Amino acid sequence: MDRFKLAKKYQEPAENIMMNIGTLAKSKEGLLDLSIGDPDLITDERIINQAFEDAKAGHTRYTASDGSAAFIQAVIDHYKNRYHLDFSADQVRATVGAMHGMYLTFLAILDPGDEVIIHEPYFSPYKDQIELAGGVPVIVPTYEKDGFQLEAAMLERAITSRTKAIVVNSPNNPTGAVFSQETFQKIAGIAIEHEVFILSDEIYEELVFDDTFTPMATFAPENTITFSGFSKSFAMTGWRIGYMIAPTYVSETAKLINENITYSAPAISQQAGIYALNHANELIPEVVNVFKERLNYVKQRVDTIDFLHLGEVKGSMYAFINIADTQLDSVAFSKKLLEETQVLVVPGKAFGVTTGNHHVRLAATQKISVLKEAFDRIEQMTF
Ligand code: PLP
């Protein structure tokens, strides 16, 4: 792959809006930033206090490269208690966020030219990570009319002799869709039949509003590599801690690769993660309720604005809003929005082009008073 292609790609308007978000957010007074999935929440102080106590007690050194024994045990216990799934210690490894685990996995499993199926609209790093690891992304669209559910028959048609893996992301960024249990079962069946991996990005597993989440590993235990972590469920984006759970040979390879990259995940963040998982039942509902309330508010406001449309938001922290009635594409709309209202969202184009170009993603990362201000400004717009 031409690695400079990435740099060139980020000169494109859609990507540019994404990549310049940080700079914009800092430089523009009055900006209402509803772009990246980095909420305004501060990590619960019980987690912070415990982590700093642990640091003072000596948890300031490298841990074992696959994570401390206590961290790995906490992940194993969590999956046993919450989902009745049994994993062994050599399947679990601490990663510097879910994204890091995903990239290690691509490096571990892909030979040059191997294909990886991703459903679109997709979390944009997947495509770049696959290409950087020498693989070829194969895109399968999902459609708003189907509630952005992945259609199993379409997925199966995309499989070739070069397919190594299918990436699944539910609850989904950017659409907020939650795949049904039946869809998970079908994907699992296809992966087992065609002997491919499922890379299940379950970082939003707790942000499911009216249903319960069942991990993909329940349906295809031998084929599934699970990625999750603390960023979203525990409001811990900046701690950079997550984990992957994989068949032993994948986990071992990922560990060896990572010994040359970050060596281990931050010790203090692993300690924070242990506390978080051991107190998940008390800590998670507060975070979930915040996003549920905010997204309900977003839905109510969108429903009163005639040029915006939004289906039911079943999970995640995002609203993928249809802007087709404005006659603008997602980049032009986002620019106009920013210029006229100082509200920053991400154009759908940044998540793929086939289905995404008549949507923008609004992240419910700010309080309802900020969302109110944003929609008060948006409803004044004319097209
Ligand atoms: N996966 C998806 C689908 C995401 O939306 C995000 C963050 O926005 C991540 C992974 C990143 O997770 P982490 O912070 O654990 O690396």
From TrEMBL:
<dbReference type="Pfam" id="PF00155">
    <property type="entry name" value="Aminotran_1_2"/>
</dbReference>
<dbReference type="InterPro" id="IPR015422">
    <property type="entry name" value="PyrdxlP-dep_Trfase_small"/>
</dbReference>
<dbReference type="GO" id="GO:0006520">
    <property type="term" value="P:amino acid metabolic process"/>
</dbReference>
<dbReference type="InterPro" id="IPR050596">
    <property type="entry name" value="AspAT/PAT-like"/>
</dbReference>
<dbReference type="GO" id="GO:0030170">
    <property type="term" value="F:pyridoxal phosphate binding"/>
</dbReference>
<keyword id="KW-0808">Transferase</keyword>
<feature type="domain" description="Aminotransferase class I/classII large">
    <location>
        <begin position="31"/>
        <end position="378"/>
    </location>
</feature>
<dbReference type="InterPro" id="IPR004838">
    <property type="entry name" value="NHTrfase_class1_PyrdxlP-BS"/>
</dbReference>
<comment type="similarity">
    <text>Belongs to the class-I pyridoxal-phosphate-dependent aminotransferase family.</text>
</comment>
<protein>
    <recommendedName>
        <fullName>Aminotransferase</fullName>
        <ecNumber>2.6.1.-</ecNumber>
    </recommendedName>
</protein>
<dbReference type="InterPro" id="IPR015424">
    <property type="entry name" value="PyrdxlP-dep_Trfase"/>
</dbReference>
<keyword id="KW-0663">Pyridoxal phosphate</keyword>
<dbReference type="GO" id="GO:0008483">
    <property type="term" value="F:transaminase activity"/>
</dbReference>
<keyword id="KW-0032">Aminotransferase</keyword>
<dbReference type="InterPro" id="IPR004839">
    <property type="entry name" value="Aminotransferase_I/II_large"/>
</dbReference>
<dbReference type="InterPro" id="IPR015421">
    <property type="entry name" value="PyrdxlP-dep_Trfase_major"/>
</dbReference>
